């Protein structure tokens, strides 16, 4: 039971850090273009094949 005194604040701190990291990623635009990376991979692959 004494361990809960340590585990609950640690869990809350880690959860808060995860929330802050998620909010930072939203603010910095990490999720703005979800399909662009997939299309870039395909476009680069086609360009590489044309050069070969």
UniProtKB/TrEMBL annotation:
Pfam families: FixS. The keyword Transmembrane applies. Keywords: Membrane, Transmembrane, Transmembrane helix. The chain crosses the membrane at residues 6-26. It comes from the Bacteria. NCBIfam families: ccoS. PANTHER family: FIXS PROTEIN (PTHR41532). This is Cytochrome oxidase maturation protein, cbb3-type.
